[in-house]
Specification:
The protein has 5 helices and 10 strands; from the N terminus they run βαββαβββαβββααβ. With about 240 residues, it is α+β, with helices and mostly antiparallel strands. The protein folds into 2 domains: about 1-95, Pseudouridine synthase I, catalytic domain, N-terminal subdomain (Alpha-Beta Plaits); about 105-235, Pseudouridine synthase I, catalytic domain, C-terminal subdomain (Alpha-Beta Plaits, 2-Layer Sandwich). Strands 1, 2, 3, 4, 5, 6, 7, 8, 9 and 10 form a 10-stranded mixed beta sheet that branches. A hairpin with a 2-residue loop joins β8 (about 165-175) and β9.
Length: about 240
């Protein structure tokens, strides 16, 4: 029986979400270990990977479970009892055997959270603090990313992908309770793409961003910190 898990996690102390041979200190590495302890040997397949320090409120994975785990409510409870408190299973639902968490995903939604103030120890792991922000400029320029572009200038070097073209369906900024939220929704994202887009919004003007999007000119951009980034939702 195939089930889909929706999970949230605090990625601060993990080396990303993807399982790695050299360490178990990843999100899926911890999940895989717990699953093996309850006699579920299926490989965990996630909708996509998140980098070190990046969080999630709506990551989706699928696994195949034996029939004795057909009680998904019990499975959810057991997993949350055994997993570290920084990883939480929000739901476990039965799905068709053809369901694929990664290849079936149509849209991916991320949010990036910024606060214009000095950092504090209670939020530092979860928010990017910036001394001064021109919100009106960010609100205007973030809309430039909407559409289909070759995002090769917004990709971490060394990435192995067949195509660097992506479609951004929506990109906008808004304020909420003293925070600035940057919203991005696309058919997919390249490695560090969102962090580089946020970095460009904080450092570049509209013409410079357009030159990067249209691959007309290079501008050096520092990726925004990972701690403000959240994988919010996967749409199927």
């Amino acid at each position: 029986m195939r089930v889909a898990l929706t999970i949230s996690y605090n990625g601060t102390h993990y080396l990303g979400s993807q399982s790695q041979k050299s360490t178990k200190n990843t999100i899926l590495g911890n999940l895989q270990t717990v699953l093996s302890e309850i006699n579920i040997d299926s490989k965990v397949v996630a909708s996509g990977r998140t980098d070190k320090g990046v969080h999630a409120t709506g990551q989706v994975c699928h696994i195949d479970v034996p029939e004795f785990w057909n009680d998904t409510t019990k499975l959810k409870r057991v997993l949350n009892t055994m997993l570290p408190k920084s990883i939480h299973v929000k739901s476990v639902v039965s799905v068709d055997d053809e369901f694929h968490a990664r290849y079936g995903a149509k849209k991916r939604v991320y949010r990036y959270i910024i606060k214009e103030s000095m950092s504090n120890p209670f939020e530092d792991q979860f928010i990017t603090f910036v001394d001064k922000i021109d919100f009106e400029r960010i609100e205007k320029n973030i809309k430039l990313f909407k559409g289909e572009f070759d995002f090769k200038n917004f990709m971490k070097t060394g990435s192995d992908v067949k195509s660097t073209c992506r479609v951004v369906y929506n990109s906008y900024a808004y304020k909420h309770n003293g925070y600035i939220i940057l919203h991005f929704e696309a058919n997919g994202f390249l490695r560090s793409q969102i962090r580089l887009m946020v970095g460009s919004l904080l450092a570049l003007d509209s013409n410079e961003i357009l030159e990067l999007l249209e691959c007309k000119k290079q501008h050096k951009v520092k990726p925004a910190k990972p701690n403000g980034l959240y994988l919010a939702k996967i749409k199927y």
